Amino acid sequence: MAERNYSKEYAREKEQRKLVGANLPISIAKEFDECCKKNGVSRYSVLKQFIIDYIEKNK
What are the DSSP calls for 11-58, one per residue? Predict the structure, then answer.
């Protein structure tokens, strides 16, 4: 089996993806985490779906 070329994988990931973040007050971040946990979803999935919905609504 061929060895993985992590540098190529990293470069491809960097070309095809962009990390989007938000700098929030701790209280809001904690409340968001609690809501996500209560609903059994990840922060990532909530934010990703919001962005997709926002794009579709505002094209």
Answer: HHHHHH---------HHHHHHHHHHHHHHT--HHHHHHHHHHHHHHHT
Output the pLDDT for position 2: 84
Average pLDDT taken over every residue of the chain = 95
To the nearest 10°, the Cα dihedral for 16, 53, 51, 34?
Answer: -130
Nearest to 33 by CA among 47, 24, 43, 46: 43
Selecting from 1.25.40, 2.60.40, 1.10.1220, 3.90.930, what CATH number does the domain 21-59 have? 1.10.1220
* CB-CB contact of 36 with 43 (8 Å): yes
* pTM, rounded to two decimals: 0.74
